[in-house]
Hints:
The complex is a heterodimer. Chain A has twelve helices and no strands. Chain A is an all-alpha fold. Among the domains of chain A are: 36-58 and 71-153, Serine Threonine Protein Phosphatase 5, Tetratricopeptide repeat; 175-228, no CATH class. The two termini of chain A are 25 Å apart. The relative contact order of chain A is 0.08. In chain B, 33% of the residues are buried. Chain B contains three helices and no strands. The mean pLDDT of chain B is 92. Chain B has one domain (3-47). The interface between A and B is large, with 69 and 50 residues.
Amino acid sequence: MRSAERVMRAVLLIALGVACSACALRPSLQPQEVAQSTSPAAPTADRGTPSAAVQAAAGGAAATAAPSADDIPAAARLAFERATGALATGRLDEAERGFLALTKSNPELGGPFANLGLIYRRAGKREQAAAQLEQAVQTSPQQPVYLNQLGIAYRELGRFTDAQRVYERAIELAPGYAAPHLNLGILLDLYLWDSGSALAAYERYLALAPDGDEKVRKWVAEIRNRKSQPQLVGMRERP
Amino acid sequence: MLLEEQAYSFEEKVIELHLANARRAASGIYDRWVKSSYGALAKLRPVQFGKSELTEGAIDAIR
């Protein structure tokens, strides 16, 4: 009896949640406004839409060729490697200091902005993370790794169409880069509810994963099963 | 009807409600209630909803 009461309580709570979500249909409650905004150093991107510079950077063709790696000052390269090492080993404060210093000394480099985006995401500062990643994309518009990370940041903010656009741009720039294929698949599958397109993205990802990815194979099988049995919409998965 | 059967039907109802809530994401609604439904669905349907993006721990590309 007690378990039935618990389940009934859960049903009531969810119904309340659905009602509250319906309130969010009001234009004044956009997802960006719900997300945290603690960014003192956010660049000029407008809330809700990427800045014109980011749109141009992410959407533009190969407008400007990236300078060669040889013209990066040795001190900047060393500082970047140190900060990256600190981030990789979880010394986030040290990494943040290093990358922040580089954004001031070498603002022409996108890598420090991009890594600051990762640091702020880990800290749950999603708006700030997206702002740094937008700056990275503005600085290095041809770098698919930054675009992939910006896609994740936009997804976390509920900016799903922006996420789709930057993932697709990353794929356009580097078709052999597997991560944005997978991340686009997740976006289409879970958040845009387009399982057919998601399936295609997952399959492109699997084609790029030479050793396979058992987890993603299961996702593909589950989508195929879901599509063939649409009447099971409310049922729990079998273990 | 047995208590277990009643509980099962309630569980199905829970999933249906969470699915209805999560579908609001497709129209741009991603508030804490919708996020909460995604969290619940990740536990109730882990293969379908327990997915996370592929990301780098640190980015080596300097530009």
